[in-house]
Design goal:
This protein is α/β, with parallel strands linked by helices and about 250 residues long. About 20% of the residues lie in helices and about 25% in strands. The mean pLDDT is about 95.
Length: about 250
């Protein structure tokens, strides 16, 4: 088994993770750029996802932070879930998706091959956001002889990151950043800002930080330049692994 994490960014929150011989896909988004209506608003996708369903190929599981927003699960992403053996998601998400979806409560574990996958809490916005934005989860991946990987999902709370850091020694942090903003909560960020991604990296003590969810959608308010700037300001550029869509790294 490999002792590194292979990660390929497709675009937005979607990346292929390869760890311990297990292949995992985060938040599948495959639709072409364009409008995605949700309620009385529209989320606009601005870049193609580089990986197609065929390019991703067979995966052992999908790690889905939540199912209720199209920038994390779009139309083709939903169709893709019907082809995979397991989708790990929130309990409410599993109820909506059915099929192979399995809901995990915070701190609940399951096995995917040699990996232990632990669901960890996430908050999609400021304190009190859950009734509006819905239930969201992150994940911690661990296994014998393997780096421990935190996949944040759409989380905006550094306090929750600190709680996760108190329970796990994280080697690699895959952080959903981008400071997503909509009309809700007076435009407060719904995911980590670049500055808060730095704070999360410090709290976790992670050797490497791989951001996702920072480009490809109009409501992502902070892109790669902001991430570079904040990590440089904090003297943590050696930890930052900033991928372009389609790029693969071993970390």
């Amino acid at each position: 088994m490999t002792e590194t994490l292979g990660i390929t960014l497709s675009g937005g929150p979607t990346a292929l993770l390869e760890l311990g011989g297990v292949r995992l896909l985060t938040d599948p988004t495959f639709d072409a750029p364009g409008d995605h209506p949700i309620g009385d608003r529209v989320l606009v996708k601005t870049e193609d996802s580089v990986l197609t369903e065929e390019a991703v190929g067979v995966v052992d599981a999908v790690l889905l932070s939540h199912d209720q927003h199209p920038d994390n699960l779009d139309d083709r992403g939903r169709a893709y879930l019907e082809t995979v053996p397991l989708t790990l998601v929130t309990p409410s998400g599993a109820g909506r998706l059915g099929g192979t979806a399995r809901g995990l409560k915070p701190w609940e574990e399951t096995q995917v091959g040699p990996l232990t996958v632990t669901a960890v809490p996430a908050l999609h916005g400021p304190e009190g956001a859950e009734p509006t934005t819905g239930e969201v989860t992150g994940f911690v991946l661990s296994g014998s002889g393997l780096p421990t990987v935190y996949v944040s999902g759409d989380n905006a709370s550094v306090e929750l990151v600190r709680e996760i850091a108190s329970r796990f020694r994280i080697d690699i942090a895959v952080l959903f950043a981008g400071a997503a903003r909509t009309k809700f909560f007076d435009g407060a960020p719904l995911t980590l800002t670049s500055a808060n991604a730095v704070e999360a990296a410090k709290a976790l003590g992670a050797a490497k930080v791989v951001p996702l969810h920072f480009r490809g959608w109009q409501h992502f308010s902070e892109g790669p330049d902001a991430l570079r700037r904040e990590f440089e300001k904090a003297g943590l550029t050696d930890r930052l692994v900033l991928l372009d869509p389609g790029q693969r790294a071993e970390v």
